[in-house]
Amino acid sequence: MAVLNRGEVWRRTYACWMGKNAGGTLGAPVEGQPGPHNFDWYPKLQEGGIPNDDLEMQLVWFDAVKRANWQINAQVLAQAWLTHIGYNWCEYGIAKRNLRWGLLPPLSGAYDNDFWNDCMGSPIRSEIWACLAPASPRIAVRFAFEDAIVDHAGGEGVWGEMFNAALESIVFVKHDLDEALDLALAFIPPDCQIARAITDTRKWWQELKDWRKVRERIAEKYWHREPTHAPQNLAFTVLGLLASEGDFGKAITTAVNCGQDTDCTGATAGSVMGILLGEVPRKWAEPLGEAIATNLSWGGIRNIVPIPDVRVLTDEVVSAAQKFLVWHGAPIRIADAPTDLSDLPEDWLRPDDGIYELWERNKYPWRVDFELNAVRVGVDYRGLPTINPEVAKTVSVWLHNREPVPLTVTIVWDVPNDWQVEPMSSSVTIPAKGIVGINAHICAPVNLPQTQTLWVQVRVHERPSEVAVPVTLIGERKWLVRKNSGEWQTEWLPDSQLPLERWLGGKPGVVEAKLWVWSPSTKIAVIGFPCNAAFQLSFNGAEILNTHQPDYLVRPGQQGPASHYAQVTLRQGWNEVALRIERHDRPVDAYLLFTDPTDLHRHLTDLVLTQSP
């Protein structure tokens, strides 16, 4: 059994958190600015650093790990999201809305989230998994994956968190950066954008040895107008590491000076360098102290007593890591003995065949698996988890026999009276260790709810009763649309995006569209219409938005220029949204969103957009 010295693990873990705090504090004041910058010191200082979701969300995850007794997965983390995370920014808000509608991971991270699932919300949360699984990237990556799919499934954000967790776990014992990068890259698909961006960055660094010139190359090939887009930012982080020449300050300043999502790039560069070096220079650490600043006071995180300082966090994480490695069968232990890796299996720092399953799950995020007793059940939505009354939805239920003997299994659908499923029940005999799939065709009623959970009862012949498995479907939005003064037609849209390019065939023209919104009560809400076309939006007959910003980066979220958002009073019952959108000579995009009026911008989930009066 290989051994990691406890004192050494403590030192590197402490430096990880201090490095993350330092890099995040350096970059936070210029977050989202394109750069390049020229910082060599903190532009803003406060004890404990600047509160940052990069770090404080990991305090929540660590609390969830302890309460789950090391048996962590995406569904456990989903509960932590809803209990403890107040943020509704960007992908966070969309994923939380999806969870509140009843969608389980990975659907919660994939549905209506095409724009954000390539972004940085999950790569910034990697350190907790690496510190719980030092020198064990297979374990760290598995849990980074479970974390990332809650709000980034199907996107580059998942690859980013997997890569970061692998790298951070590896540098606990591999202190040659190039070797560590080679090993970490093996944990993500070589054809994903992040892998290509990192590979190119390493090649350009070898050729140019000038971070500004390499940054120009990265910008030429991977630049995205969205500052949090992950491929460019992972490349900037790696560039900071490569340009550091072993100097902590040089690593974080280079990463931050590249611009874009600077608090995240600086924080990750700082955590990697902290683990790699085993210390953060006093110059960078002392001004911050050991206190951990959080956004608990205004509800960024909530319903939790956060760990107060980095020293206590390190004590608890190292103690947990000792148990975590044993629980997950790692061939390495943390002990009060000298580090000795002579018994570490040669391939332990490389991925095993299980990595391909994770890759496939992220490339196809429309299936949810349930581990029952005798069988594993997979619900394959065969695409988006949406339905409308005019088209039957086909769902495949996969039954995997876990036993070494054949099993006869009956599945029975339990649905509301106005829903139909064909067939309502099916019986199959599954060979030992075999898999059988059953298709079900689901028809929704005309009075379609916004979300509906159906249940599949799984009955194994001559075995104890199993639990029922949920199948949650989201009702599609019922729009009335006409193009260029033509006939009005009903259009069922599966999510918040309006397909203006499809409607107009990529040509100039005018779309008029109406949507009815049913509210269970009178309430104040914010209606958002991020759009780069000329548009007018009327609510219950009164025009409330009228603007044209052709250069606006259309981001499906609750934050943006005031010209695209308006506070309205939703009356109890039906409300009408009417739009007139004019496309000129460039592609246009648009989303319709409803949130509450508070600073937290919580997405409203009790509205019905699937019917008309």
Structure report:
With 613 residues, the chain is of the alpha+beta class. Helices cover 35% and strands 23% of the residues. The longest helix has 22 residues, at 6-27. It is globular. The N and C termini lie far apart (69 Å).
Total number of helices: 18
Beta strand count: 23
Return the structural class. alpha+beta
The percent range for strand residues is: 15-25%
Q: Regions with pLDDT < 50 over 5+ consecutive residues?
A: none
- Average pLDDT works out at 95
Major beta sheet, specifics?
6 strands, antiparallel
Widest beta sheet: strand line-up = 14-13-16-21-18-19
Shape: globular
Rounded to an integer, what's the Rg over CA atoms?
A: 25 Å
Helix proportion = 25-40%
N/C terminus separation: 69 Å
Please outline the helices and strands:
Elements (H helix, E strand, L loop, with lengths): L1 E4 H22 L25 H15 L6 H11 L5 H12 L5 H4 L16 H6 L4 H16 L3 H15 L6 H9 L7 H16 L2 H12 L7 H14 L4 H10 L4 H16 L4 H4 L24 H18 L4 E4 L18 H10 L3 E5 L3 E6 L5 E2 L5 E9 L5 E8 L5 E3 L2 E6 L4 E9 L7 E10 L7 E8 L1 E7 L5 E5 L3 E2 L1 H5 L4 E11 L3 E6 L5 E6 L2 E6 L17 E6 L2 E11 L6 E2 L1 E3 L18
Parallel strand pairs: 1-2, 5-12
Antiparallel strand pairs: 3-4, 4-6, 6-10, 7-9, 7-11, 8-10, 11-12, 13-14, 13-16, 15-22, 16-21, 17-20, 17-23, 18-19, 18-21
Helix pairs in contact: 1-13, 1-14, 1-16, 3-7, 7-8, 8-9, 10-11, 10-12, 11-12, 12-13, 12-14, 13-14
